[in-house]
Request: fold
Amino acid sequence: MSFLDSFFTKKEKSVLGVDIGSSSLKVVQLRKEHGQAVLETYGELALGPYGGSEVGQATNLSAEQITETLKDLLREAKVTTTNCGVSIPFARSLLTLVNLPYRKDPAEQKTVIELEARKYIPVPVSEVQLDWFIVPKGDPAQFAEGDATGAAAERMVEVLLVAVHNDELSLLQRVAKDAGIIASFYEIEIFSTIRAVVDEPIKPVMVIDVGAASTKTYVIEHGVVALSHAISTGSQDITRAISVSGNLSIARAEALKKQEGLSADTVGSSELVFSRIFSEARRVLMQYETMHKKSVTAIVLTGGGGVTKELGTYAKSIFSIDVRVANPFMKTEAPAFMRPILEEIGPEFAVAVGLALRKLGET
Ligand SMILES: Nc1ncnc2c1ncn2[C@@H]1O[C@H](COP(=O)(O)OP(=O)(O)OP(=O)(O)O)[C@@H](O)[C@H]1O
Ligand SMILES: [Mg+2]
Reply:
């Protein structure tokens, strides 16, 4: 490498995605080189041991405990930048799709949306950060200004309202500040995941993010969340089931779950829990299809539970549509020898990759 090369390389800025999950923290550091996202480092640290529980189990830690874990992770993963974006848990946010009156003037539209939003948010608007997106219309008929009888129906737009409680934001801000990182944005985790793992621009796709305590499932159409739902079962429930049925410690059951997945001895417990998760996800899928009169064309499995061995095959047998396991590192450049491991663990890092990609777009 010439002096000039290294000079320019140094000037390229590195960025960080920080995913604060219920069971673990994940970070992904990227750098932009010749317009490409290059993977510099990544890492994960379980929160359980910092709060008196086991690896793989969900926790409810204080800001101080999360900060301590994050500092350790930043050190262990040899993170060299402080410029980052941080995830907001789906469980701490509110997403609703509503039909509101259309206004031609963007300023007027904004006023209408912000006034109407009050009706759909269960807490005072002053207590939340409010954001919204207008859903692009694929079907021009829905834009019609009158109906068949000639009466002027009011023209409507579909709006996705997004609210996050101020308390949640201030907790995350405190963690970031105390851990010594500089977050330029906080993003609800599902938007980060979409950026990292969904490439379908038009057709409806369903994402199933199997976390530790819960499974987040949502349908994306035209790149926008059309329906979202949290299922209160996650991968920790498989560990608990294996532990009970085999009379094993949580740690041993956790190891067995990762080793076997849906492929052998522990199949009973894993399949039981996944069948529960998938039947609820199927109901969400059918609800979407009935409401929107469209078919979901593919399913993307993600989250730590998405790493489960043979999960793709099992999901395919349940849903009978195209099922893919998320591979967010595909969007990054990495040494060839790392590809197999990155592909395997990818689903766990979807949120962190998505955050880092957004941050990279900022610089
Ligand atoms: N190889 C694997 N096989 C099966 N399960 C796994 C594997 N790796 C991780 N998991 C499980 O995935 C879960 C963690 O997933 P993830 O990291 O997505 O959760 P989280 O982000 O902490 O939680 P949440 O998104 O619900 O807040 C744990 O229960 C863990 O046991
Ligand atoms: Mg998560």
Summary: The two ends are 24 Å apart (CA to CA). The mean pLDDT is 91. Residues 21, 211, 303, 351 surround magnesium ion (ligand 2) (CB under 6 Å). The first strand starts at residue 14 and ends at 20.
